[in-house]
Amino acid sequence: MSQAKIIDGNAVAADVRAAVASQITILRAGGAPLPGLAVVLVGADPASQVYVRNKNKRAAEVGINSFEHYLPAETSEAELLGLVERLNLDPQVHGILVQLPLPAQIDAQKILEAIHPAKDVDGFHPFNVGRLVTGGPALVPCTPLGCLLLAKRELGSLSGKRAIVLGRSNIVGKPMAQLLLRESATVTIAHSRTHDLPEECRRADIVVAAVGRPEMVKGDWIKPGALVLDVGINRIPAAEPGKTRLVGDVAFAEAVTVAGAITPVPGGIGPMTIAILLRNVLEACCRLHDLPFAEVL
Ligand SMILES: Nc1nc2c(c(=O)[nH]1)N[C@@H](CN(C=O)c1ccc(C(=O)N[C@@H](CCC(=O)O)C(=O)O)cc1)CN2
């Protein structure tokens, strides 16, 4: 039985953070301003609290000034829009991130569209989405850009490769498909209505699983030697009563015996998301101040 290469997302994320940090040091030595990231969390979702804490900690480590805004779960849409407007105008803030999901009384799309596109380090604003599709300079969503970076490190050129993206969310599936298309891959977007998903999957050289269904992608869905990028983060009951464990959207133990390379959960795509966020803050800061930005890795 073969064994795929297990991609160490923590190690690659550390390389990205180091590249961001060294670029900030050089820019600062030349008199550039301190890059600033504002992170907004509404409510007390435990997973979101962990992600926001990590974002602020990692930002500080690479030399990004982070501004934390913790708002109560009852915050109104108007109050949040007011904060976003203030952050849009704050010259110390180059990147604004509103942690998702938001409480039900707030229209998330309205908030995302209120963020100034030049400070939209999540890449969710329709201006940046449009630029990604039409090929102009854009801030690109962090998780798909992290996947692309890993794919290019593994495979080199993606030109002509068959890729399948499982899931069509605005945060991962759709931007992922656009990024792969930009690299001249042949891209299929699969979703809940796709016929014979296993067969579609078996044709792919690159599988990106972003459906949010624990271990849905089985080993016999994978083409031998394919690259498997697992974006899923699903908490399921563990063998020990009362405990839980994290699994991806891919049945790892099966897929690892077929794939050429595969990301684990945890320790695969997740850490890349935050590393790429820091890269995006640096890019936003450079664009806003007309400074040179060098691609990381
Ligand atoms: N405004 C945004 N909100 C959300 C985004 C986003 O990109 N922008 N993505 C996710 C959450 N997320 C970042 O915000 C995120 C998810 C997971 C990880 C991560 O490092 N995961 C670890 C496991 C962590 C654990 O033990 O729970 C891993 O996979 O190794 C980082 C960031 C939704 N919201």
TrEMBL record:
GO terms under cellular component: cytosol
Lineage: Bacteria, Pseudomonadati, Pseudomonadota, Alphaproteobacteria, Rhodospirillales
Subunit structure: Homodimer.
Source organism, top-level taxon: Bacteria
Pathway: One-carbon metabolism; tetrahydrofolate interconversion
Function comment: Catalyzes the oxidation of 5,10-methylenetetrahydrofolate to 5,10-methenyltetrahydrofolate and then the hydrolysis of 5,10-methenyltetrahydrofolate to 10-formyltetrahydrofolate.
Statement: the UniProt record of this protein carries the keyword Phosphoprotein: no
SUPFAM superfamilies: Aminoacid dehydrogenase-like, N-terminal domain (SSF53223), NAD(P)-binding Rossmann-fold domains (SSF51735)
Domain Tetrahydrofolate dehydrogenase/cyclohydrolase catalytic stretches: 7-122
Molecular function, one GO term: methylenetetrahydrofolate dehydrogenase (NADP+) activity
Gene that produces this protein: folD
Statement: the UniProt record of this protein carries the keyword DNA-binding: no
Protein name according to UniProt: Bifunctional protein FolD
